[in-house]
Amino acid sequence: MINQEQAVVELRQVSKRFGNYEAIKDLNLSIRRGEFFSIVGPSGCGKTTTLKMIAGFDHATEGAVYLSGTSANHIPPYKRNVNTVFQNYALFPHMTVYDNVAYPLKLRKVPKNEIRSRVIESLKMVSMDPFLDRSPNQLSGGQKQRVALARALISKPEVLLLDEPLSALDFHLRQEMQRVLKHLQREVDITFVYITHDQGEALSLSDRIAVMKNGVLHQVGSPEEIYEMPQTSFVAGFIGKSNLIKGRMEGPTRFVSDAGLQAMTNEASNLSGEPHVYISVRPEKLRISKDDERYVNRLSAVFVEETYYGADRELTFREAGGTHILMKQQKDDGNVKFSEGESVDLFFRPEDAVIVKEWGS
Q: Tell me, what CATH number does 257's domain have?
């Protein structure tokens, strides 16, 4: 259960430099007890560096990391109530599944009879108890990841850090392990801090998501908040697909693009003073027909191409300013065909037009 008040992990004004390179820039982050929290961003955004500082494998150049309200800057990794699951599993090849999972308890000199019961309990949680006598080289990638999870959870840490744990698995195994992780986190009620560059993974697994780029935190929110109400052009374009058109605000709900598009939008009075903003409209929010009177905004464009994905089609258009516009069309929406270069009017509602600031501003 998520404790809305109590932070189990806090990073306060944390910066991390490697020589002249600033990997993390004044990061402030609070992670609640019992939540599934994902940090997402492209390669080099600082997400793994952040995880290493929480684990104690690396230290902040400035600022402080707090665990359950206590500064952890000078606490070594082995004294933090935090465990890590790595992408490469880090299983001991010469040990059986049982011995791999039992290893943390043996280090703590836990009695043998207690070790056995806890190992079997941990393996049952990940459906690996039938394989306790096997060696890691007899397991599939998904099975190895389950064993690594069981080992990380057996000592009952306050926080489990997961560093892109599913990236080495194929698509179907990844989906299966996502279900395992989500169920497991709810069952053990431990804070999971999950590092990934996969936006879909973050959206499906998380209670909240932090989006980073170039060491800067852009936004923290629920999956719905991040997807439906992005705050910067980077978040809008990185989390899912989005149509971004540059322009300016001429009032709290009136957007004018550099190419002349005029649109009514979500209220954005906080950005009215910005010299440049973007309108963000998701591909699934666009319509070709204006049958619904709520679709008051019209975007004129020409058809470029169609991409077929099975359950839906993605239509690409080009608007007057040269920006490519994507529209997702479900099979049930009809099968309207366009010729290359054909002029088309696209419609969208004001509530589907989100104003975002330029990512660096």
A: 2.40.50.100
